[in-house]
Design goal:
about 550 residues, alpha+beta, Beta-Lactamase, Alpha-Beta Plaits, 3 domains, six-stranded mixed β-sheet, five-stranded antiparallel β-sheet, 16 helices, about 20% strand, rod-shaped, binds guanosine-5'-triphosphate, membrane, Diguanylate cyclase, transmembrane helix, transmembrane, Rev_trsase/Diguanyl_cyclase
């Protein structure tokens, strides 16, 4: 659990998260904006395409109605020219083949509105349409009109009729010629439906008052659709032409494209389901989402790998600091030649470690050095002697320990003063170091007591030479408190080749030798072999 939380807090994790966040923001931001723009563009393109298609449909319907009106008009003009009577109209329309193709029925009514001829059924009931608005309008305007859609009394079919006034030879209106268009007849509706074949959505036509003229659901024809705010009928009639987005048709959002006809107060409209219209967009969105997810994952992985790689020097630096702290390496492991931030950090660590090392060395020196004489002190000696004994035991060599005591040093202090005593101690130490070999270790234990550890002694007699050399080194008078004074020392030396000798044993043996020298009148040295428990020589 802990390593997991540790990983969450790691710099690598933070950088990786940052990279992922940036990629996500960039992806969602740029991708989302691009998708929105693309979607908006697509809507415009689709809407324009559909409007252009609708314009063709509107032109087709306009021209169809115009053709039909023209046909009726030319027929009535023919009749007028030939002074056809109402009684002759039935024969005439039956003889006119084109009328059957263009109209569901063509009928004629006299000026009182009574049926006088019917193409579909010459024996049709003599109905009267004098109360119909289109009939009245035709007589009043003296020109053809297009009726509102209605259910025909003659056929029971939903129709609109085109009218033309009938004139006698003198131009007087004697009746009205009607061409009926069956709104459910394939010749009208199938042509419109054909315009939408292979495409999504459907075409419908409504009059200006919202009555349905054409609709794929034939049962709606002649019905007045809901034209409340936000309905497709209201949207279709809102302006002469254009498109509306997001209108609900039967609960489904649609793109509604509409165009008003020129010839008649009808609006032809297209309801285009948005979901299928933008189906390509959905797949683009899905692919963009998957792409973004993959990209984000890759970016995260990439961020992790790159950060890990970039932070390798930091890891190395961390290990180096740990190794140096644990004493497994020295400060030369720092890569101080790097030019980057890790180089700066390494150099800072190097300088810090160097200062710390120097401080440690100084501390160690102070802790192991006798302040007055500059020799090793007792602490150093206590640490050093066991190691020297072990070294000698390993090498099978003889080791010697000398304990030195300045004779009657108290007198020097008492007669010349403590400072003069110090001077003597310093000079004594200096001469001592000068008298022994570089391989020998000299220390001041306390007061006027000094020790020397002799390592790598070649012969037994070598120690005699060294003892004599020390005695001789002290022959010259010492300067203390401005006065010259003879200083002598007593030296007890212990020698051993035993690999099992202890610190106590060799110290005791040296003490014993010193005691012998002192007993013999001081100013000399004696050598005692450890285990022999006797002073072999005592010389002044
Ligand atoms: N000047 C000076 N005196 C010290 C220092 N440390 C100890 N002493 C003195 O050294 C003297 C040591 O004298 P002792 O060890 O008693 O004996 P001694 O006079 O040398 O006599 P023997 O050893 O028997 O010859 C004492 O008076 C201490 O006060 C020091 O650092 N400086």
């Amino acid at each position: 659990m802990r390593p997991f939380f540790g990983m969450l807090l790691s710099f690598k994790f933070k950088i990786t998260s940052l990279v992922i966040a940036l990629v996500l923001v960039a992806g969602i931001g740029a991708g989302g904006i691009a998708l929105l723009i693309a979607e908006s563009e697509l809507r415009q393109v689709i809407a324009r395409q559909e409007l252009s298609l609708l314009t063709s449909a509107a032109a087709f319907i306009d021209s169809d109605i115009q053709d039909k009106r023209q046909l009726l008009k030319s027929l009535t003009e023919q009749m007028r020219g030939r002074e056809v009577t109402l009684g002759e109209i039935q024969e005439l329309v039956e003889a006119h083949q084109t009328l059957r193709e263009e109209f569901f029925n063509v009928s004629a009514f006299d000026a009182s509105g009574t049926l006088v001829a019917s193409l579909r059924d010459r024996n049709a009931k003599r109905i009267n349409i004098s109360d119909r608005k289109y009939f009245q309008d035709t007589l009043r305007l003296k020109e053809g009109v297009i009726s509102a859609p209605f259910r025909s009394i003659l056929s029971g079919r939903p129709v609109v009729v085109l009218t033309q006034p009938l004139h006698d030879g003198e131009g007087k209106i004697i009746g009205v010629l009607l061409g009926a268009i069956d709104l459910q007849r394939p010749s009208f509706s199938a042509q419109l439906d054909a315009l939408r074949s292979n495409s999504a959505g459907y075409l419908f036509i409504v009059t200006d008052n919202g009555t349905t003229i054409h609709h794929p659901n034939r049962s709606l024809i002649l019905e007045k659709g809901d034209d409340g705010p936000g309905t497709i009928v209201e949207a279709a009639l809102r302006s002469p032409e254009g498109w509306e987005d997001g209108i609900l048709d039967d609960g489904e959002p649609v793109l509604l494209v509409h165009k008003h006809l020129r010839e008649v107060d009808w609006t032809v409209a297209l309801s285009y389901p948005v979901l299928s219209a933008f189906a390509p967009m959905h797949s683009v969105r899905l692919r963009a989402f998957v792409g973004s997810a993959i990209l984000t994952g890759l970016a995260g992985l990439f961020g992790w790998v790159i950060t890990k790689k970039l932070l390798l020097p930091l890891g190395r630096l961390h290990r180096h600091v740990e190794d140096i702290s644990a004493g497994r390496a020295d400060i030369t492991v720092f890569d101080v030649d790097r030019a980057d931030e890790f180089g700066h950090l390494s150099r800072a660590f190097y300088a810090l470690s160097q200062r710390r090392e120097r401080a440690e060395q100084e501390l160690h020196r102070l802790a192991t050095t006798d302040v007055l004489t500059g020799l090793h002190n007792r602490r150093m000696f206590d640490d050093f002697l066991p190691k020297a004994l072990a070294r000698a035991a390993r090498a099978g060599q003889q080791v010697g320990l000398a304990i030195l005591d300045i004779d009657h040093f108290k007198d020097i202090n008492d007669t010349l003063g403590h400072a003069a005593g110090d001077q003597v101690l310093v000079e004594f130490a200096r001469r001592l170091v000068g008298a022994v070999r570089t391989t020998d270790t000299v220390a001041r234990l306390a007061g006027d007591e000094f020790v020397i550890v002799f390592e790598q002694l070649a012969t037994n007699t070598e120690i005699d030479v060294l003892g004599r050399k020390i005695i001789d080194a002290m022959h010259q008078p010492f300067l203390g408190g401005g006065a010259q004074r003879a200083v002598t020392a007593s030296i007890g030396i212990a020698l051993t080749t035993s690999p099992t000798v202890t610190v106590d044993e060799i110290m005791r043996a040296a003490d014993q030798a010193l005691y012998g020298v002192k007993a013999a009148g001081r100013n000399g040295f004696a050598v005692n072999h450890v285990g022999a428990e006797r002073v072999l020589r005592a010389r002044g």
